[in-house]
Design a protein that fits this description.
Structural class: alpha/beta
Radius of gyration: 30 Å
Strand order of the largest sheet: 5-4-1-6-9
Number of domains: 2
Largest sheet: 5 strands, mixed
Number of strands: 9
Length: 334
Amino acid sequence: LECVKLGQKLSNCIRKLTNYRRFAFAVAESNIPRLKQFLSVGLRNGASPHKLMNMLADALEGNAPAPNACPSTDSRAINITLMTYILSGRKLLYALSHANGLPSLRTLRNHMAFTRIMPTIGTISLSDILHNIQEVVLKPHTAAERTTLHGVNLMVDEVALEERAVHFRHNNSVGGLCWRHSPLINLVFSTYDSTLALVKSLKETSVHFAKEMTVVAASCFGESGTYPILALPTCKHVKAADSCTIYEVVMDAWRTCGAVAKVGRIRRWSTDGDMICRVSGYEAFLSQKLSSTGTSRVIHGTLAGMVGLNLWTGPEDVTLNFNVKHIFKRKSPF
């Protein structure tokens, strides 16, 4: 008799466990916001049916938050997902999405607009800058229906870069090498021998990793925000002529893509405050005097009468300016 009672109890327990599990899977497979995510995370973490039901009841009553289950579309979860993706990449985001219920990369892309900036691979390229201007500057202006022309300030500075190679799948080439020395070697993985030649060049230091990233960004007078249009890996051995090449190629790309008619003319270059940038800035943007004819005739009559004012400009009356941060650093006693 006791064996029969024990068998009935075991049968009831098995039936309850089966019902709990069927209920959990049924809810997890249906499209119920937050509840589906909560149960999916609980099942992956191996929570018992009794504990799962208690936590579910507490979460529904508002007595306790659902553990390891972040809301899938609120701003906090999206911000955490974006920070994880930027700092650690898609692999960690995939792991946290499955372990802690963070939104996936696809969900992040559905709720945010990503702008793709094409970094320069090899020597400086006009096509890369044209692509960045089109994607970063012209498309947002067209989407926002901005038709007012503004003066444009181009800013250039360097940021620290991790010294390592990066493989770009879209053209099967390697990036992260200095743009001045990378033309000495074939950067496209076309054959096995080309890959060995690249490794040999890195060992012989004829080609080396970039230590910094030269970034050129555009800002419009009267508008907030900046638009990066050039990301150029470089080393510490940049000369003034190399900086002048960057100025010329960027200005040529701005004219070629039609940004002058859609956004505005380049009025100023703001450069770094070190010696190389000072020399290149003087060579590029203090090459000709403000003329009383042409596009500068409007302001020449006003500025010419100011004694001691520097009237020297660059091509198309572009003026030179230095980053305020570096001016303050030079003036600071610390």
